[in-house]
Amino acid sequence: MRRAESPTGAESLTRAIEAISLVDHHVHGAWADDVSRRQFEELITESDRPVPGWMTQFDSQVGFAVLRHCAPVLGLDPGPDPETYLARRAELGAEEVNRRLLTASGIGHFLVETGHRGDEILGPAQMAAVAGRPADEIVRLEPIAERVVAAGTDAAGFAGRFEEALWERSRTARGLKTVVAYRHGLDFDPRPPTPAEVTEAAGRWLRASDRSGTIRLDDPVLLRHLIWTGLERGLPLQFHIGLGDPDIDLRRSDPLLLRGLIELAEPREVPLLLLHCYPFHRHAGYLAHVYPNVYFDVGLGVNYTGARSVAVVAESLETAPFAKVLFSSDAWGPAELHHLGALLWRRAMIRVLSEFVAEGEWSENQAVRVATMIGAQNARRVYGLGEKV
Predict the structure, then answer these.
(1) Cβ contact 84:74 at 8 Å
(2) Would you say the pTM of this structure is higher than 0.70?
(3) Which residues form the Amidohydrolase-related domain (predicted)?
């Protein structure tokens, strides 16, 4: 693993943080095939619009980070032009690129969410084979419900069929995830719907699906039902928060909107994981501060803020107890994003914690312990992974 930059005099702290075998508690698979320049640029942005011909996605924080930090892993000097970088990538081929970048990341365990275009990316077993590290699955709720409807059910039978399917699909999963922020927004009624409400809503969904020929779950009653069924399942439950593609209404993805659900779910003691959270990461930190069932990360925001990611990571350490903060990359597609998620997080932790130590606010032992908690131990506890052997 290439060493991250660190302030003078922080060598031992740098070595300790670089040695952490990270647990990426929310990640997707790496892209399995070779890509063109156009495809690569579309894969390093959250926009779903074509890249205009007068610009390039390489002229962005994440684009500069790829050229600066991923190029050496592929055998190039730091900061090549995009054409040179992509030519080297094509020369090596997707399999070798994935192997180099995933192994160089220092991620020791992947928790892979498979609900988004899973047939285009590596699954958990493939990620484990390429990286040489364990990988477990996080199961998304909404596709399970959509498959139940696609397989055939009536409104009255939907709730039972979904519960059966969820338990079967999650037999070996480490956690669940909901994208209610995309499908409706976080400003939903937090109470569990009644059986009659679920049946009525399922009927509406089935009729609408018959008319449109598409099966996409966006009914707020049924989304609530999925969440509460997931809570009954008892596995850690992840929520997409904040930054995402244009399918999300960012105004309605502030985690403060989840307060009612958090309080109603608190007696169940199921961990609620708030993912990404940028630009609402301070709100997420507050919720993790006041509610024992809430945890959060700043995963996606780290890659897309690049050289400014130190500030984002620093802000994630402000109010939340350190046992409530986790590491994730939320990488999907190019293995560059998996590698950068880890490298930029380590670099940020080294810089921020070195300052705390240099200023006499923290001891070095405290800094190493907190970095290890956030980088690995918290996720191992929350998801029942056990201690690394």
Answers:
(1) no
(2) yes
(3) 192-385
